[in-house]
Design goal:
alpha+beta, about 140 residues, 4 strands, elongated
Length: about 140
């Protein structure tokens, strides 16, 4: 009888651990999907900015302008999170002191959600990543 109880206890423990690992794996998989969507959106924003700049005398556009011009999907401009990421685009127009203008865009997980932070700008066009706080041009480049 003790042997049966021991086997039952071990089996129950293994099942509980397996379920916990499975649930954790699902959450991590969802987080990776969210990050992939954010990275893809940043690449799309970079491409849209390059096209917009060519047709607007070297100026960069806001998310609304990029969408209205047909270079960007309207879901990104809506202000609502995209797969639990919020995008913040900063545009610096051309001026006498900045003849080229510039832009930078951050993708950050919504509050209380795990995930890495991403950044892209007009200078390098590469995506930078920070695991704990909003990313910047000084953070490592993702591969």
């Amino acid at each position: 009888m003790i042997r049966v109880l021991t086997i039952l206890a071990v089996t129950t423990s293994l099942v509980a651990t397996g379920c916990q690992n499975y649930t954790s794996g699902l959450q991590q998989s969802g987080d990776r999907v969210d990050e992939t969507v954010a990275i893809t959106a940043l690449r799309n924003i970079n491409s849209a900015q390059r096209m917009y700049s060519l047709s607007h005398e070297g100026n960069y556009g806001t998310l609304a302008q990029l969408s209205e011009a047909g270079y960007l999907d309207s879901r990104v401009r809506s202000g609502k999170p995209l797969r639990d990421y919020v995008f913040t685009l900063t545009v610096n127009p051309k001026s006498e002191s900045a003849p080229d203008g510039s832009y930078s865009c951050q993708a950050d997980p919504v509050a209380d959600r795990p995930g890495r932070h991403f950044y892209i700008d007009s200078i390098s066009g590469t995506i930078h990543v920070n695991p704990t706080e909003p990313a910047s041009a000084t953070d490592p480049i993702i591969e």
